[in-house]
Amino acid sequence: MPLAIVFDRRIGYLFPMEQSELRAFEKRCTQEEAPACQTACPLHVDARAFCGLMAAGRLSDARKLLERSMPLADLLGRLCEGDCLAACRRAEIDAAVNMPLLERACVCFSKPAKGMLMPSTGKRVAVAGAGLSSLCLAWELGKKGHTAVIHHCQSPGGRLKSVNNAVLPEGVLADALDALTGLRVEFILVDSFSPAWRDKALEDHLALYIGLDDASVSLADFALGGISDFLTQETAMPAVFAGGAPDTPGGAPSFVRAAADGKRAAGSIIRLMQGVSPATARENEGVYKSLLHTNLEDVAPALPVIALDPDAPTEDEAVAEAARCIRCECLECVKHCVYLANYKGYPKRYAREIYNNLSVVHGLRRSNGQINSCAECGLCAAVCPNSADMGAFCASARREMARSNRMPPSAHEFALEDMAFSNAPDIAFFRHEPGASQSAWAFFPGCQLPASFPGQSADVYRHLRRHLPESGNAPKGGGGVGFFFRCCGAPARWSGRDLLTAESAASLRADWQQAGEPTLILACASCMSFFTEALPDIPVISLWDVLADLPLPEGAAAAGLDLALHDPCAARHSDVTRARVRALARQLGQEVEELSLGGALTRCCGYGGLASAANPVLGDAIALSRAKDTDRALLTWCAMCRDRLRAVGKNSLHLLDLLFPDGSAEQAATRPAPGISARQERRLSFRTTLLHDAWNENPPENAGMDSITLSMDEDTARKLDARRILRSDIKAVLLHAKDNGPQFANPDTGRSLHCLRPKQVTFWVEFTRTGDNAYDVHDAYCHRMVVPGVPGEGLDTAATCEGYSRKGGRM
Amino acid sequence: MKAELQGVSARGWICRQCGIPLEILPVDITYMGSSFQVELPRCRQCGYTFIPPDLAEGKMLEVEKILEDK
Question: CA of B38 to nearest chain A CA: how many angstroms apart?
Fold first, then answer.
């Protein structure tokens, strides 16, 4: 299906988006498309919903639904030929759902719904012939308050009168004619039809319909050539419509198709009476091919129900047959994505809601949370038959929100401050290999690997220095393996901040140029995505591609555990690196289970796109869902995936745990994930240790903060992590309390309470001072509202969405 | 909005510097350009205002999110 919108992942969709672009995205999602049975039905009976009601034994409701699209359902429900049978997707597995049998049972075992009689409009339409198409046209007009005047040479019913009594019992046709009379339909017996009769009819009525399924009627009688439009049923003569003829010359007319002709002609006549063209708004009328995608892979076979008497199925038989309907729908992406399932919709609806959300000027932007909760992992696009990428849509929406200063400040604040922390001069650094004055390569572990695996990150660096220059891959200019420690800038991009992203990329480029433009060896798949998209000219290679070509480290070994391989979602399109990771596992002798949603279809841990930052509860649900994909422990090659999966209780290993073991594999698989404070502290200590060990440097310590000792129980520590309160935040409050005296005291407990607003957040700490610089922390909490009397209260939310780089700086 | 942030007691906390109990007094709190007056435990002399953890993590957080989405 060619689509008007061309999407480039580097550019994203451009907001403010034109309606036409939104429509193009919506078209990719087929969930709202009518199922094949419905589009194949000339009357567009909603067979899927009908089967659902029948299967639930709700025959009266099923009948109401049937009557919505099927005129004279009591009659036609017994005669339907089942044009849907050939389109039914169930037929691809075993046999189509027997809709004619269900319709018959429905009308036999339920009563017609009592409709309200519309007031008469006084508009009269002439009808020639009293076959089924004419009766259906009269029904449709009568429901709207118009009067159909049926002229007939023989008794009404046409071919209906010759239907087998078992199929159409006596009385059903008479009841239908009575019902029509109840809708003010008039029946007038005439001798014959002629052009003169036609002219007179048009003089006395607003339009004329010629029902060709009555044997006593032919177009020739009216001196009309034929039907000029088979959707509107117009003839060459204005205000004259015709229908009900067999599809093939000499063939028997189908009852359903004749009924549909009458129904569509009624629609044309109503339009005509409203003064609009009969062709207006007729999209998707008539039979057409459904665009709804339905995956049949998991559909279990179910043989059709054989009714003992096909002309008179029992209610039980019908209910059992209805249960065979597979309720065709797509939801391919929703089935696999906790985020998409969470909001009870599907991309087409979400795109509309997000589009509307961005247009809200006054009032609540209710989709903000949803936009920021997407992990932007790309699985939806990977499983969608039309590649609808909700992540890319959300990414663009975030950029628009940030650009227009409508991004909720709390959503990404912690992640961006964490990024600024990693890029601050007291953390970030570059060094050439000890003893070297230039670098052919530089190991770039990213900000998270050393926070999760500080020891192994240093091991990797030693291993690269030892083996890479000997590997025969050394560039001509020579040079060693430098070390580059900083955050790539992916959080800025995820948060939608274009300026911050550009600023971060520019500062990274400047640092790289200053380092002599080495090839960067990236450990993190998200860093790789960021470099590929934001800094495509900087040469990069995956650490795992490099390690697969080097000798295995001494001590490297298989885990001795049953493991399943979890690829990070950022490596969805990195086929080569995923293959090298598997090659490394094989070299280690580590057998791994491939997950059905692995490789290019891998699932996110909830960290991607800063989903867990904006929506921690959903982020954990995403990780938990991934954890449940296998009973085995997971082996991954992304630090955040490993820690997030472990944090929800899943035994998880990083590939570095096998390559550079530190203790047993069992210990490594159950090692707790570090909290947010520990991650920052580990980066700091990693830097200090590496600079000392490799370059014999001794960076100065932060005397004020480092002199404070905190103690708290595990529950409090967990609570503070969930509240995104760092130990350094608490220390800042306590230092202020020490210098100025705490604000509140509790004489009953002997505890103190102090608050400080060092940034756009006010932190409160309840504590007991146990020594000069020692504190027991009982609780800490924070809020963003500005309350008078708080030191630093002037810090309101004046900072713009882009204001997170102040702490950052050049190295 | 205003009603949601009311009804907080001082829970035994006193102003340490002034040495007096906190009283329920009106206070103007602001966020995202919105400002409203609520009654919270305050020190009548120095103006320090007490915010308990359940208010910060509960109603206050809810109101902050609403104001951020406005």
Answer: 10
Among chain A residues, CA nearest to B10: A746
- Contact assignment for B16 to A741 by CB distance below 8 Å: yes
- Contacts of residue A411 in chain B, CB cutoff 8 Å? 68
CATH number at B3-69: 3.10.20
Q: Which residues contact A737 (CB under 8 A, 6 or more apart)?
A: A743, A752, A754, A756, A765, A767
ipTM of the modeled complex: 0.96
pLDDT for the residue A6: 42
B14-31 average pLDDT score: 94
The pLDDT tens digits of the residues spanning A757-770 come to 998 999 999 999 99
Amino acid A704: pLDDT: 67
Q: Please give the pLDDT value at position A702.
A: 67
Q: pTM here?
A: 0.88
- Top residue of B1, B11, B68 to mutate, by most chain A CBs within 10 Å, is B68
Whether B51 and B60 have beta carbons less than 8 Å apart is answered as yes
Q: What's the CATH number of domain A124-273, 1.20.120.1760, 3.40.30.10, 1.20.1440.230, 3.50.50.60?
A: 3.50.50.60
Phi and psi for A643 in degrees, rounded to 5? -70, -35
Note the pLDDT of residue A699: 82
Three-class SS of residue B61?
helix
Query: Are A77 and A106 contacting, i.e. CB atoms less than 8 angstroms apart?
Result: yes
Residues A139 and A76: their CA atoms lie apart, in Å, by 12
Cβ contact, residue pair B57, A790, below 8 Å: no
Which residues in chain B have Cβ-Cβ distances shorter than 8 Å to A749?
A: 12
Intervals of chain A under pLDDT 50: 1-7, 10, 796-811
Determine which of A412, A723, A738, A743 to mutate to test the interface with B (most B C-beta atoms within 10 Å).
A743
Long-range contacts of A580-584 (CB under 8 A, 24+ apart): A580/A542, A580/A544, A580/A545, A580/A547, A580/A548, A581/A544, A581/A548, A581/A637, A581/A655, A583/A548, A584/A544, A584/A547, A584/A548, A584/A655, A584/A659
The DSSP symbol for B24 reads E
**Amino acid, single-letter form, for residue A615:** N
Tens-digit pLDDT profile for residues B25-52: 999 999 999 998 999 999 999 999 999 9
Distance CA A398, CA A791 (A): 33
Residues 406-435 of A with CB under 8 A from B: 408-411
**Cβ A781–B12 below 8 Å, yes or no?**
no
Domain limits, chain A: 19-31+330-407, 36-111+315-322, 124-273, 411-549, 563-660, 705-783
Which pLDDT score, from 0 to 100, does residue A477 have? 64
DSSP notation for A224-273: ---EEETTTTEESSTTEEEE---SSTTSPPPHHHHHHHHHHHHHHHHHHH
* Cβ atoms of residues A84 and A69 within 8 Å: no
Mean pLDDT over the full length of chain B: 90
- From A207's Cα to the closest Cα of chain B, the distance in A is 55
Q: What is the pLDDT of residue B4?
A: 66
